[in-house]
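User: I'm curious whether this sequence folds into something compact or stays loose and floppy. Could you predict its structure so I can see for myself?
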Amino acid sequence: MLARETPKTLMLVEASSEMGKTWLIQRIRHYCGENDIPAMHVDFRDRRAYDYLSLVRTARDQIGEQHFNHLTATINNFTGVNITLSNANTGSSGGVNVSGGAVNAQDIAGRDVIKDNQFYIQADSDMQRRAAEIKINDAFFFCLTELLKTKKAVAFLFDSFEDVTTEAENWLNDYLLSKMRESQLEKAIVVIAGRKVPQLGETAKAIVAKTGLDLFTEEHVKEYIVNRRKIEGLDLETVFKTSRGFPGLLAKMADAAGMGNKSDEEWL
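Assistant: Here's the prediction. I'll summarize afterward.
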């Protein structure tokens, strides 16, 4: 997908624990870094309270703030703090009453990047909060669409989907995946991995590639330990039987074996 050799733009990787989902996501992330493909990466295991605002901020910060000035300006418009100063003793002749002084947080950080004030949405009603959500997301996808005109792809990588927050899942379904289904983000690539993945139905069939992950065979274990990790002296048959072919367990065993091969001086 990242090489643009298939019309599929959304990969769903559903597999049980220790099957190598995180390793796969990290490999894709590494590929993006080597091939000038901007990428956002979120692992929902980190237990952050992700909502639409934190997700678009994360995407902006990881993909490149300079491409999202319109988004940051829009966020600041809805998160700015208004300060009113007044003298408590308003009956005195020396009273001071200064009102309506707005703190403008849209100062420039660096030459071309607008600084995010990192505040939360200031809204007095559900209607205002909804209006802010719509405008902020409109600004994000406007910036993303402009960026996609200059890049061969932009990747969104989501790991541990079984731990997704309700708010983050709503943003994925209502905004990112919805726009992909409607062919509005043709060069955006999304990979979602987890013990569960979104159930998107027939409407997304044209863009979805769904797969699982298989256990390693003994030949895979040899390839991984000897050729990829360059670890010698292990009984590969025992390693295979102990790991039972689970990629995650095999990686942990290789890490332990690798540390055991280090001299004490190398770890001081």
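Summary: The beta strands are 10-14, 39-43, 82-86, 97-102, 154-159, 188-194, 208-211. Confidence is low (pLDDT under 50) at residues 82-86, 92-108, 262-268.
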